[in-house]
Amino acid sequence: GTLFFVSDRTGWWNLHRLRAGRGEILVEMEAEFGRPQWVFGLSTYAFASADRIICSYTQRGVWYLATLDLSTRTLRRIDVPYTDITSVRAAPGRAASRRAAFVGGSPTEAPSVVTVDLATGRCEVLRRSWEHPMDSGFLSIPEAIEFPTAQDRTAHAFFYPPRNRDYAAPAGERPPLLVISHGGPTGATSSTLSLSIQFWTSRGFAVLDVNYGGSTGYGRAYRERLNGQWGIVDIDDCVNGARSLVERGQVDGRRLAIRGGSAGGYTTLAALAFRDVFAAGASYYGVSDLEALATETHKFESRYLDRLVGPYPERRDLYVQRSPIHFTDRFSCPMILFQGLEDKVVPPNQAERMFTALRERGISVAYVPFEGEQHGFRRAENIRQALDAELSFYSRVFGFDVAGPAQPVQLR
Q: Which of 138, 151, 288, 302 could form a disulfide with 354 if both were Cys (CB 3.0 to 4.6 A apart)?
């Protein structure tokens, strides 16, 4: 007869329970015990026994595992070597109550299925998502940073410095910076080992993976910054994150690039259209026309933009004002576009229209389509080809030589 649930009535997704018609908070923290419900079967907590919950929560982009004693409402953190924890499971019972299971990842380990002994905190990896060992000499460990942004606010990101044990930059040279705007756009990036990020840091790039306003994991007020402001807040945060690193002397202000996929592709295109900060950009199946997205996208996200931009068609003016396709005269730097030809979320015509418009205006642009790919590339050979092509593109823009064979890119 007791209902347990997650509510953000305090401004943070905290654990609550309702019994005998009375609701009460179980643990009040500036932390998130929940995730956005974009997919089915999510679980951030489970019952190890009738009076004990095993739960995960995040603060400043880092996830933790803990037990919650329901009789005393005492939360005790379990020391585990993971910074991203999902799919928490436990089975009530005398034997099972000593263990729980979850999917865990960290900056040095890809997601793995893990069990933990709740008495000792000892973890056992049951299955890794991939088994290839990584030499630590090539791994860049991210730093969770906070930086000033528009409206006297601060925003969050993970900063990855370049790292390659076999090479060093010339004395006094600062690295180029690659800013990543995640998809969603109301999801979040994490610090779990990402081979695509390590691809760049091992080749001399610094990477800023931005959790711009609207991202989850930082409380409701932060999450709601994007309401009605998509195409404004996300751009401001990506731009100000890059500027912050330039001011700190950590990156080269003349070699700033931005990349992103899907909603992150939109932020990339909009940043290049409406700001003059980045010297290059790469859009993966990005949105160039918000109005087309509102009228053509799949059913699940059919009214998503009403909250992020405004009700359509009543506020069609906002959709036009924030669509890069209508402002190709403002683009001034080279760009590369990647697109799956079977994409039903962001159809290929969005990338094709952008490519044609920029080419007609004399902007250096490349278009790389992939047969058989949908929204997000899944074939290993295509992922590799895209990364190699993007690296070749930056080498031409920033004037450096690529080590090893390069994927040729035709800039028009």
A: 288
The CA angle 62-60-163, to the nearest 5 degrees, is 65
Q: What DSSP element (H or E) covers 320?
A: helix 316-321
* HEC readout, 58-113: EECCEEEEEEEECCCCEEEEECCCCCEEEEEECCCCCCHHHEEEEEEEECCEEEEE
Q: Which two tokens stand for residue 142?
A: 């991210």
CB contact set of 277 (below 8 Å; sequence gap of 6+): 239, 242, 243, 256, 271
Query: How far from 175 is each of 149, 218, 220, 311, CA to CA, in Å?
Result: 22, 29, 35, 42
Bridge partners of 208, per DSSP, are: 159, 179
pLDDT digit string (tens) for 359-369? 999 999 999 99
Length of the chain: 412
Please report the DSSP string for 323-366 in residue order.
-GGGGGGG--S-EEEEEETT-SSS-HHHHHHHHHHHHHTT--EE
Residue 95's pLDDT is: 57
User: Are 343 and 375 a contacting pair, CB within 8 Å?
Assistant: yes
Token pair, residue 284, equals: 């993966």
Q: Which amino acid is at 42?
A: L
Whether pTM > 0.85 for this model: the answer is yes
What are phi and psi for residue 326, nearest 5 degrees? Answer: -90, 0
Is residue 192 within 8 Å of 83, Cβ to Cβ? Answer: yes
Predicted pLDDT at 93? 64
pLDDT at 298 over 80: no
Q: CA nearest 336: which of 274, 399, 298, 387?
A: 387
- Cα gap 143→156, rounded to integer Å: 11
Say how far apart CA 8 and CA 219 lie, in whole Å: 8
The identity of residue 358, as a single letter, is: L
Which three-class secondary structure state does DSSP give residue 19? strand
Averaged pLDDT of the chain: 93
Q: 330 near 252, Cβ under 8 Å?
A: no
Question: In this predicted structure, what is the pLDDT of residue 94?
Answer: 61
